[in-house]
Fold this sequence. Notes:
By secondary structure, the protein is of the alpha/beta class. Helices cover 29% and strands 20% of the residues.
Amino acid sequence: MSDVKPSRPSLTGIRYGAAYYAEYQLSDRLEEDLDLMVAAGLTVIRVGESVWSTWEPRDGELDTEWLLPVLDGAHARGIEVILGTPTYAIPPWLQVKHPEIAAEQGTGRPMPWGSRQEIDYAHPTFRVYAERIIRAVVGRYAEHPAVIGFQVDNEPGAIFFNAHVFSEFVDRLRAQYGDVDTLNREWGLTYWSHRIAQWSELWTPDGNSLPQYDLAWRRFQADLTTEYIAWQAGLVREYSRPDQFVTTCIAYPRPAVHDADLVRALDVTAGNPYYGMQDHLAVGKDLTPITPWSTTGVWGLFRQADRTWSSKQERFLITETNASTISGSAHNYPGYPGQLQLAAFALVSRGAAMVEYWHWHSLHYGTETYWGGILPHSQRPGRVYREVSEIGAALRAIGSGLDGYVPDADVAILYSNDSRWALEFMPPFHTADMEPDRTAYAQIFDAFYRGIIDSGSQARIVHPDQLGTDAAAFAARHPVLVAPALYAATDETLSFLTDYAAAGGHLVVGIRTGYADEEARARLAVAPALLAEPAGVWYEEFSNLERPVPVTGSGGFTPSPDAAATRWLDLLHVEHADVLARYDHPELGVHPAVTTCTTGAGRITYVGTQPNPTLGADLLRWAVPEPLAARWTRSATVTVASGTNEAGARTWFLSNWSSGPATATVPAPVRDLVGGERLAAGQEIALEPWAARVLAEV
C-alpha cells in the first residue's frame, strides 16, 4: 500500500483496446478471447466496473479472486488493464437493506430500482458501503503488474433531490451569501413575492421558476459530482503505485458535470464519445443524431474529441466509443467498411492517447443486448474484428511517433458550463410545438464549432477559467477567438475579451454573449454588455426567427448563395462598425446580420444570429483565410487535422469521409507513419473511399 500521490504517468504510445467482461460470457473462453485480442493488436482492457454484485454477492461477503485469471492472462500476453471501481451499479441486497440511498428524481420521489445509477452518491450510508468495496477491489489488485490505472465510478453526473442534498444546498447558500437579505437582493426574490425571512423558508427545487436559483442548483449538483469523484480518487491513491493513473470516464452530456472542475483531482481525462456512423460520417450530409447523446457529422466527432482535450488542455483517453451499432434494439447502424479507422484516427488527431471500444463481445442478455461489440453474437471474428485488427497494426506502426502530441488549432472557441445550464433553464429558442428548446446552448455553440471545421480550420475549445490573465499572450497563441452564447459571464471574463481584441486578437462574438452576469441576471447595460463600444454595435431588441432568412454580403464579405440566418436575430444598430452581412428581408433588412470593427490592435466581429452551416463556414473562412490545412490541395471530402509531437515535428491526418475516391497533394516531404512510404512535395496521394493516411513531415 502506498500513501504517496502518484506522479503524473506519461502517456507514451497509443493504447488500443476494449472493455472486457469475462463474467458476462456464456462459457469460459478467457484464453481464446485474450489470444484474439493479441492477434488484433489490442494492448489494453477495462474491467470490473459494472459488477458490484459479483465482487460482493451478499453483504460483507467479498469475492475478489474471480478477476485474477483475467489479470494474469492479460499480463502474460502483454495486455495492460484499467481496473474500475464498481460503484455506479449497486447490488440488490444493498437497495433492499438501505432503500433510503435511492436517488430522488424529485422531492420524495425515489428513482425505481432495476437500471443503474439509481443511488444518491452523496448519501453517507452509500459512502460506507462504497468505501468498503473500493478498498477491497483496489487493495487486492493495485500491486498486480497488469494494472496501469483505475477508473473510479462510471459516467457520473446525475441530479438528485434527496432531503440531505437540499439541506446541504441551503448550507452552501448560507456560506456563500451570508444572510437571507443578501440572497433576496442577489436573486431578486422580491419578484412574485419570493422574499424569504429565514433560510428554512427556501423552497425545494422541484417547483422553482427562478433562473438564479436554478443556476446555483446546477452548480451545486456539479460540485457534488466533483467531490464524489475526488473522494474516490483519494481512496484509490492510498493503494495505487506512482506509475498508475486515476481517472473517470466522462459522458459530457450528463446534467451534473463541470468537466474542467471534475478532472482537477484526476491524473488524466477520459471520455466516452459516441457518434452516428454510415452517412452520419459522410461529408456533405446533414442528418439528425441517432440518439440525444451521440453526434452526427464529421464535425460532431471532432467536437467530442476537442471537448475531451479541453477539460485538462492535455492528451486524453477514450474509454468507450463505437465498435459497431450503439444504443438499443431500434438503432442499428454499423459503420461502413473503413469508418472505424477514420474515427480512430480522428480521435488520435485531436489528442487521444488511447482508443478503447465498448465493448469486446456483443452481449447475449441485458439492456444493451444490441449494442454491438468487436465480436458479434456468434463470437466468430468478422468484419468489425478484421477492421479493428487493421487499426491495431496501424497504431503499432505509429508507435511512439505521437508522444507529447499537441493538436493544432487555428481558432479558439469558448465553452461555458454556466451558460449551458442557464440557457437550458431559460432557452432563447423554442421547439416546433412552441415548447422551450433546452438544447439551445448546444445549438449555438455547435453552429460556430461546425463553421470552424467546415471552413477547413481546426479548433481549440477553452473554458472561461482557462483563459488566464494575460490577454496579449492568449492573442499571440490564438489569433482568432469565438465566444458563442457566453450568456452567464463575469465582468472579468468580458473584460478579458475586450483586452484580447485590443491586444491584437480577432474576437468573434455570437448571440446571447454577455447578456447576463454570473448570477444569470440580465445586465443593466447596453447589449452586448462591455463589448458594445469596442464592437461598434449595440442592440436593445431581439427576435426569434420562424424560418431561415437569407443574408447578403457587403464590405468585402461574400457569403455563399444558401447562407442564412436561423432561429434568432439581434436587432443591431451600428455606431462605428463595418457591416459584413445583411438580412435579405423587407423588414429585418434594416439591421445588419454581421458587423466587424477594429479596436486597438485587433478587431471584434459581431454575429447577430445563429448562422446556418453555410454561413458559419463562410464567416470562419473569412476570419481565417489561410488555416494550416490550406497547405494541402485536396478533394472536398478530405479533412486535414494536424499536431506536433514533443520534438516539434508536425503530423498530418488525411481522411476521406466519402464512398468515392479522393486525392490530396503533398505540400512538403512526408513519411507515412503506418506504411513507411516517403512522399515528395507536390506528389498526389490517392485516398480510397473511407480511407485515412497519417503522414509525418520529414
